[in-house]
Amino acid sequence: MSGKKPKKLSAALTHVGVYFALFLFLLPFLWMVLASFKTQVQILNTSKIFEITANFNNYISIFKEYSFLQFIWNSFVVGIGATIFGLILGLPAAYAIAKYKQQGLGLLILVARIVPGISFLIPWFIIFSKLHLIDTYTSLILSHMLVTMPFIIWVMIPFFEGLPHELEESARVDGCSIPSAFVRVMLPISGPGIVTSSILAFIFSWNNFMFSLILAGDNTKTLPIAVFNFISYSDINWGGLMAASVTITAPVLLLALFAQRYIIAGLTGGSVKG
Amino acid sequence: MTNWIDRNIKWVFTMPAVIFVALMMVMPVGYTFWLSFHDWNMSNVTPPLWVAFENYKVLFHDELFLKSLKLMFYFTIASVAIETVLGVGLAILMNQNIVGKGIVKTLFLLPMVATPVAVGLIWVLIYEPNIGIANVFLQKLGLPGQEWLTSQNLVMPSLIFIDVWEWTPMIALIVLAGLVSLPKDPYEAAMIDGANTWQSFSKITLPLLKPTLYSAILLRMIDALKTFDIIYATTQGGPGTSSQTINIYGYVLGFQYFKIGQASALLMVFFVIVLSISIFTILLRKRAGVNL
Fold this sequence. Notes:
The complex is a heterodimer of chains A (274) and B (292).
Chain A: H1 4-36, H2 40-44, H3 57-64, H4 68-99, H5 103-114, H6 121-130, H7 137-161, H8 166-173, H9 178-186, H10 191-207, H11 210-215, H12 223-232, H13 238-258, H14 260-267
Helix pairs in contact in A: 1-13, 3-13, 4-7, 4-10, 5-7, 7-10, 8-9, 10-14, 12-13
Chain B: H1 2-7, H2 9-35, E1 38-39, E2 49-50, H3 54-60, H4 63-94, H5 101-108, H6 110-113, H7 116-127, H8 133-140, H9 155-180, H10 185-192, H11 197-225, H12 229-234, H13 246-255, H14 260-287
Antiparallel strand pairs in B: 1-2
């Protein structure tokens, strides 16, 4: 072929293009990390944007002065709770919808994903106030479950559809009831699907802002609310703000790297295999 | 007992989830619908007062509401259009033999999984008129600095830019997955017939990609219409009401002014818009021969 040189050139250009695009998309994160190690004076001085004296004062201050450990714990409790209860309700539902082709129910779950969260915010606030559940883990977990459960069902339906049903049948022949065949046979071989959907469900709960904005209080304030409150102070402590942003995004980014193989399929609800 | 459970397993397994959705979603939306016909400021002393369609009448004469509708569509259409074009371009680039493709794909996931509030705050710093890197960059090029998020004219483009940054990779990765699964034969036939790159892209790739693109755009659009976190974290609808989309306006009416009836009417309209657009696009997708 005579086109060998142009081919090499175009391959080089493709690499430059992809890596440059990647650099642009990662730039805001680099900027965040950089600023989190700067002092306020260094952040305010734009003539030397790369001058840092790498200190951890911003991190120390958000944990000491703003009790970030408490917020991390709150986010963690709510995220884990919403994921576990989401699995308990979601897994059997997804299995039955997949096995008995209950497309109507599948549609209901899809609608739960489409409906704007804000359209039930006012009733939630009123009802949870009446039940004295504002600023409790209970109301936060219940509200976050409306994010985690439909998502888990959505991801697990195609997963269960792809499992061989002979296994369950043979367990049934051995005298298992359907629920115990489900728990003893089907769930153990669904590990990858469960892990992926749990990780993503946890991330969605961890990232959730709107529900916690209404339902969390001083005792249960989750990380997104705590980070957001940072900016409402008149004199913005940029270094602290960026350290807080790093603290909240780092666990999510690590989880995402860990689960990346399944994440695309998960985010698109199995409509595309990643 | 076991027999009964086995015979009705369809319902035993699904009912808990269905009841949960009914209690946490269907019932509250019904409550919002009921509240939208009442006047109430959430007080315990004065109960909701029946006002029939008054809230809806006021709403459709409310300039802020009409403006928030426009802003929502502006934001959604502009973001999704730009994300689709850039996403397809990026996917085509990534569909070549790239060294380290796995890690590149993984790193492209980061903008969309990062906590939106934190993302918003990073961009507040980037756009900061005095110390932000955006203006530092402009000044290096000899251009005047801009007010970005605090400018009435630039706030929407600035927010759209954040959304494009956050979600272009998702479109790109979905399209990439679609590209990988395309059959090779049509391209070979086209090459034999002497088609150039553009022709094989527009005549083969795009038509074959249509179902994937539909899925990607549908998913993206549903979420773009509902964008709340990024806008609330960066501008809270400001400056003034320049970036007050319907989602933000509903929140402000309900939880800052406690105009519960007004807010509920607005939320019902919003609910109907989002649901009908979603159903409409799902049907379009079905007609294009794609199953969910």
